């Protein structure tokens, strides 16, 4: 296998980064004396050398041409004043004497290649970013013919060979793949002779820098107040440091996990932070030691350092962040170990027991729901007279911004919790108990998305509830419903609502009203087929097709489309038709909007259609893909 990886990386350099990370990810799990580790590291050295040679060939001809014209690297490289003479020499040597530039550009910018001839005089700027954790960091800005590029250059100042190797290897081991989020900066090229390496440049302030800037500049629309943003910083910071610990198989942690080593987006709907330094990796110790070091270094010390902001984060947020980072599989053992540790304080025991009791009784509250609910109540406090439609629009924005749907695979009750924590936060006891039962049934897999719709529809039909409650319960069942549309729930099999269909009422451009729903009987399918025939569109319906129809006030089919599931993720939509009498009134747009909403609600990922009237479909985000026939829309 190692031989294949070696050959594959040499033949296809575009796969070098993934193969490199896979090798180091395997190596760090093994003892230094392991024969397997020694062999893996030999292959790692081989693919690294092959990659450097491949990148070096890019510039060979252009360097000669460039220097023949009387120019040199001295003309290209420009150093900011704070760059020391010793550092200038090392950086210049890396650019001049190695493939450092091309390796970095290739790795950070998806295989992009740039020759020296493409860089104008003074086209590379080296700017000091700062010095900490045993290294000095610079930003390199390269101006090419078509675009500019930026990456960071790290110069080793005080790290020992062992410390440096550990840091670089763990950066590689924590690289992003299809299954795992990225926790650290992407590693580029390491040049041993100059003792420097490149990393992905991540713009933004570390948490510590943000708080320092707020201390002298104050808050603004661009910089939310530290008091407001601190819970988000704590949750995301604890989550990210815990994820790193988990990624090392619970063996290693960053010695001082403080806010100066992590960049966190200022908007609380963003997931995850990025560690900009993992210097000082140490053995993690037991669960209690990990928790106390993390809480003290990241949370309590920061709250003490910036007393002017009155920063407060209770232990619940810390436990929630750890629970979300570890997932149910590992968090239970983690918390049990702390409960059983004789060194655990009585206060922590009490807090942790209360937290675990709440989770057991009410389920876990994901970060997305916690901060979406917080944002909703902040908005409502400023808009106390908000209408039903205004609340629905705001809730739909929350559902999108906080990516609630993405949390459903791990937290099946997340949608119910969002509604319970926002529009139903002041509901009567009967409705709150009902929502709690729904959430519990979803967690226990008694209900799924489809049966949830049936359950809620039956509840609406069998109980006397307010217009407000009915309005939002329908949207809990069908989250992709337009906020301002009138809808009706229809039984398709029996009046006991064994299966439920929704009917949307919309207004056309002439002010008329029409409804959209699935075809309910053979007669409606026949009417749809007749519309296609009158439009001279040849169609062939099969038992695998589904039909979405538009009806006028008399219940007559005036338009529609038909489609077929191809896989669990992919649906093929065949054709759309509207009666000649109703063309130009926006019904085709209404049909396609509703169809896309329903496909999202069904968790489809892609819609295919033929290359018929492409201009119409381009307006809805359909595109041409080289590996797909017709047009494609990603959901």
In short:
This protein is an alpha+beta fold. It is built from 22 helices and 18 strands.
Q: Which percent bin holds the helix content? A: 40-55%
Structural class: alpha+beta
- Rg, please? 29 Å
The overall average pLDDT, rounded, is: 89
Walkthrough of the structure:
Helices cover 48% and strands 16% of the residues. It is built from 22 helices and 18 strands. The strands form 4 sheets. It has an 8-stranded mixed β-sheet with strand order 11-12-13-14-15-16-17-18. It has a 6-stranded mixed β-sheet with strand order 1-2-3-4-6-5, sandwiched between helices. About 1% of the residues have low confidence. It is globular.
Describe this protein with a few key phrases.
alpha+beta; 22 helices; globular; single chain; 635 residues; 48% helix; 18 strands; 8-stranded mixed β-sheet; 6-stranded mixed β-sheet
Question: What is this structure's SSE topology?
Answer:
Elements: H1 2-11, H2 16-27, H3 35-68, H4 73-76, E1 77-79, H5 85-97, H6 100-108, E2 124-132, E3 135-143, E4 148-156, H7 161-173, E5 187-191, E6 196-200, H8 207-217, H9 226-247, E7 252-254, E8 262-263, E9 274-275, E10 281-283, H10 287-305, H11 315-339, H12 346-362, H13 367-382, H14 388-401, H15 404-407, H16 414-421, H17 429-443, H18 449-462, H19 467-477, E11 486-491, E12 500-507, E13 513-518, H20 522-534, E14 546-551, E15 557-565, E16 570-578, H21 587-601, E17 606-609, H22 614-618, E18 631-634
Parallel strand pairs: 1-2, 16-17
Antiparallel strand pairs: 2-3, 3-4, 4-6, 5-6, 7-10, 8-9, 11-12, 12-13, 13-14, 14-15, 15-16, 17-18
Helix pairs in contact: 1-3, 2-3, 2-7, 3-6, 9-10, 9-11, 11-12, 13-16, 16-17, 18-19
